[in-house]
Automatic annotation (TrEMBL):
Domain annotation Glucose-methanol-choline oxidoreductase N-terminal: ranges: 9-128
InterPro entries assigned: FAD/NAD-bd_sf (IPR036188), Glucose_Oxidase_domain_2 (IPR027424), GMC_OxRdtase_N (IPR000172)
Protein source organism: Gigaspora margarita
Lineage: Eukaryota, Fungi, Fungi incertae sedis, Mucoromycota, Glomeromycotina
Residues that span the membrane, as ranges: none
Protein name: 26588_t:CDS:1
Flavoprotein in keyword set: yes
Keywords: FAD, Flavoprotein, Oxidoreductase
Keyword Flavoprotein on entry: yes
Cofactor(s) required, per the database record: FAD
């Protein structure tokens, strides 16, 4: 649809007494205006840079370092259990996640920095054992 369609539509609603609204995010949210759209995806906005981020943690030996990615995205994985830190039960700190992927039970370490987001879809998210 061309821009003229939206201009005529807004003019028609103004003739009906519906006010024009410059900003739907302001106090007054009723009214008419052309929606602002930005074409981007969740991956473009948030994941792209985070997937590039790599952190190094000290390993078992004195000069040994382990390379850890900040975000680990797994498709077609089913979360079995979130493993919590037993020493700090009041803090609710997750340490690992057990999941099933490619016919194997796997375990992922969670670096204790900020937040852990687990998204398993509408049905599976509520089935995660916590």
């Amino acid at each position: 649809m061309g821009i003229q369609y939206y201009v005529r539509l807004i003019d028609a609603t103004k003739n009906l007494g519906i006010p024009y609204n410059d900003d739907f995010n302001s106090k007054r949210q009723n009214g008419v205006r052309r929606f602002q759209r930005k074409k981007c995806s969740l991956a473009d906005e948030y994941l792209r840079d985070a997937l590039k981020k790599v952190e190094f943690h000290s390993g078992l030996e004195p000069n040994d370092f382990e390379k850890v990615v900040a975000i680990d995205v797994k498709s077609y994985a089913h979360i079995l259990e979130i493993i919590w830190d037993e020493e700090n039960k009041k803090e609710n700190i997750a340490t690992n996640v057990k999941y099933f992927c490619n016919s194997t039970i796997c375990e992922a370490f969670i670096a204790q920095k900020e937040k852990v987001i687990i998204c398993s879809g509408t049905i599976n998210s509520s089935q995660i054992k916590i």
